[in-house]
Amino acid sequence: MAQPLAGLRIADFSHVIAGPLATQFLCLLGAEIIKVEPPQGDAMRYYTRDPERRGMAEPFIGANAGKKSVILDLKTDEGRAAAQAIVAQSDVFVENFRPGVAERLGLGSASLMEANPGLICCSVSGFGQEGPMRDFPAIDQVIQSVSGLMTLTGSPGNEKPLRVGFPIVDTYCALLTAFAILAAVTQKRADPEGKGQVIDVSMLDATMVMMSSVVGAMLINGTPPARSGNRGFSGAPTADTFACADGQITIGAVQQVQVERLMAALGCEALLEDDRFATPEARIENDTALQEALGPYFAKENSEDLEARLAAAGVPAGKVRTVTEALELEQIKGRGLFMNVPSGDGRADVFNAGFRFAHDGPGHARGAPSLGEHTEEVLAAMGLKPAAE
Fold first, then answer.
1. Are 30 and 111 a contacting pair, CB within 8 Å?
2. Helices 287-299 and 256-266, interaxial angle, to 10°?
3. Alpha carbons 174 and 201: distance in angstroms, whole number
4. Which parts of the chain sit beneath pLDDT 50?
5. Where are the beta strands (DSSP E) in 177-293?
6. Three-state SS for 19?
7. DSSP E strand stretches across the chain
């Protein structure tokens, strides 16, 4: 059996993270990705502090493994004509230009779908193709700011907005974009006429959806969400992060039975005899007192030993680790989470899709392309000539 998207060709005119990461997920499922780049290349090729990696920066490698790179100068008539020809022979067109730019380049959905009625056109932008902010430029941290996300990150009482420590907006937007494209492909395959679709993905919209657990509640109860620090979504004081003798551990004791097992593991069952701590409601009302009472018990524990004991008792718990420490976990090493692919003169580990199939699932053995590596190959296969000829 072939991979799910084998035979699907995607003309990818996107750059940096959200668009390329979206098509990367589809590439891992078997789609052919033709990455169209300007003569200077995708800007993310240069997102590195290592001068020797400029042109093939670490983030670029991870988001573009397995794709084909074609150089086209869309400022020229020849480049625009070649772009239109590539899209005409593709199933999906993805771009993340500022709204209106694709139309000025002759790559608007209306004209493209006139030539290729079954085409799926996907536009990714900061604020969407419509609305008063549609022309505002945006990057991940700007959307974190505009959406309110930065006001949710951090500890209660700290009013300084805080960015999430990785491009979470780009990453979630990429997942939502890949999901939208898959939905459109499924829709087209079920349509007797094989009609295409136009997809409008907004980074701001995606972020609001990503925050639905708190924003959705606000829409219903009218109460704005507040910073909760490391406290879990339940609000339970036993769903928080505590200091151990050698580090910290995060506990997820929410249910009464989990709290009882936590207390037993710490040797402080007597706390449950205190009316202030006996029930979930009482514990929330007296959360500071309970956490102060629990502090000395946690302080005597080794975080990794306690993690194992609580897991065996059915209490969610996890030692706070660095990313480096997390990568050394046998649990991660044994899951096939990474692929080892060619990279320059050597090889590199890059992420696979993050899920597994029993057979014919995600993955490939190809590295990220050098700039323009497949220009002649792709254009020749489509009956076109490189600009230099």
1. no
2. 40
3. 9
4. 388-389
5. 197-202, 241-243, 248-251
6. helix
7. 9-12, 32-37, 68-71, 92-95, 120-125, 197-202, 241-243, 248-251, 317-319, 338-343, 346-351
Give pLDDT tens digits for 120-172: 999 999 999 999 999 999 999 999 999 999 999 999 888 899 999 999 999 99
The tokens describing 86, both together, are 């590539």
Pair of tokens at residue 84 = 């239109």
Question: What per-residue confidence (pLDDT) applies to 389?
Answer: 43
**Nearest CA among 118, 131, 68 for reference residue 379:** 68
At which residue do the structure tokens 């979504």 appear?
233
What are 297's two structure tokens?
A: 């018990």
Residues 6+ apart with CB under 8 A from 27: 33, 65, 66, 67, 364
For residues 25 and 172, give the distance between their C-alpha atoms in angstroms, rounded to a whole number: 12
74 contacts 105 by C-beta, under 8 angstroms: yes
Query: Which strand ranges, in their side-by-side order, compose the sheet holding 120-125?
Result: 68-71, 32-37, 9-12, 92-95, 120-125, 197-202
Q: What is the pLDDT of residue 387?
A: 59
CA distance 21 to 350: 12
Query: In this predicted structure, what is the pLDDT of residue 345?
Result: 82
Beta strands in 133-279 (DSSP E): 197-202, 241-243, 248-251
Residue 349 · residue 48 · CB < 8 Å: no
| pLDDT tens readout for residues 36-61 | 999 999 999 999 999 999 999 999 99
Q: What is the DSSP letter of 4?
A: T
Placement of tokens 């005409």 in the chain: 88
- Helix (H/G/I), strand (E/B), else coil: 101: helix
Q: pTM of the predicted model, to two decimals?
A: 0.94
